Amino acid sequence: MACVLRILEFSNADKDWLQFVVRNRREKELSPDYDLVIGPVANDTTLPVIDDYMDGKYDQDEAVKRLMPQNLTDQYAFLTEKALSFLSFERSEEF
Asked: What is the distance in angstroms between the CA of the first residue and the CA of the last residue of the chain?
C-alpha cells in the first residue's frame, strides 16, 4: 500500500496563497487538511503587506500586486509525522 501525502502547493504569491497565509495567521495554527505545504515564504519582507491587507488598508488585488515584485523563495512546511517520515538525513557540514 502506497503512502500518499496530502500536499498543497502554491506556485506564487497569488490570491489563494494570500488567503491561506491570512487564515493561518488568524487561526494561529496551520491547516490540518494537509501533510505538506509548499510555496512562497511569508517572511519579514512580506509581512508588512500582509498585515496592511489584514488591517483593511489594501484589498486583495492590491496586496497581491504589492507582493508580486518580491523575490520570494519557496518553503516546505512538513505539518504531520507522516510527512516528516519522508525526510532522511544525508550529511552535515561544518563551516
From this structure: 42
